[in-house]
Amino acid sequence: MLKLTYHGHSCFELEAEGKRVIVDPFLTGNVHAKVKPADIRVDAILVSHGHGDHVGDAVQIAKNNRCGVVSNFEIANWFSAQGVEAHGMHIGGSHTFPWGRVKLTPAWHGSSLPDGSYGGTPAGLLIWMGGKCVYFAGDTGIHSDMALYGRLNPIDLALLPIGDNFTMGLDDAVEAAALCQAKEVMPIHYDTFPVIPADPHEFVKRCQARGIKGRVVEFGQTVAV
Ligand code: NI
Ligand code: MN
After folding, report:
1. Which listed ligand is nearest to 163 at the C-alpha?
2. CA of 51, nearest ligand number
3. What SS3 string covers 126-184?
4. CA-CA distance, 170 to 175, in Å (whole number)?
5. What topology does CATH give the domain 3-224?
6. Could you report the per-residue pLDDT of 48-85, keeping only the tens digit for each?
7. pLDDT of residue 178
8. What pLDDT does 89 receive?
9. Are the beta carbons of 123 and 91 closer than 8 angstroms?
């Protein structure tokens, strides 16, 4: 069984078969997070792109847990330079880790790191754990590759940004939900900053009107995928 815990914004944890990972660990400064970096116990950290609201507390969590970061090559090097073990990958590549498998997908966005370093190209993530496939679209506008990745890698749950301004807004996110053909979709990356307000229940309602199953996971809630 695969369990997902949502910490708000794009930060979530996945747990299966006694292994745990955290994705885009933005907790400090995340108004919706109910946990602190010191509370996190994980086997790995996944980072989709270099922006501060995604890199978040990765360095502290990695050091606390003596675990590694998985990200694109440029971001992996940035973590390595700070004494954090990192595994670099890139778009289209997949790798199997002791806790599961990851493939990096395209995301249309930026990726500069908090100190201004070059952070390569931003990514979405396909994550296989506990016999399920989770697609985290990352920070991105809608793109038709979502249909291809969904066809090649049947998706159980897709996490799609709905907050607009920096990513897809609600209208495009509903189209993205249709494109990726996931069994279920979940809205993310909304209401964290004043500039990204969105109604997650409206997203789910509009997905349901298109025959797509959607679920709002509350901040801090743990659900079975
Ligand atoms: Ni971003
Ligand atoms: Mn973001």
Report:
1. 2
2. 1
3. EEEECCEEEEECCCCCCCCHHHHHHHHCCCCEEEEECCCCCCCCHHHHHHHHHHHCCCE
4. 9
5. Metallo-beta-lactamase; Chain A (3.60.15)
6. 999 999 999 999 999 999 999 999 999 999 999 999 99
7. 98
8. 98
9. yes
- CA 118 – ligand 1 centroid, Å: 13
Residue type, 220: G
pLDDT of residue 205: 98
- For residue 29, the model assigns a pLDDT of 97
- Residue 24 alpha carbon to ligand 2 centre in Å: 9
214 secondary structure, DSSP code: B
Cα 177 from Cα 208, distance rounded (Å): 10
CA of 182 to the centre of ligand 2 (A): 22
pLDDT recorded at residue 66: 97
Ligand 1 (ion): which residues have CB within 5 A? Answer: 51, 139
Segments in the chain below pLDDT 70: none
The predicted structure's pLDDT at residue 73: 98
Extents of the domains making up the chain: 3-224
**From the CA of 110, how far away is ligand 1's center (Å)?**
6
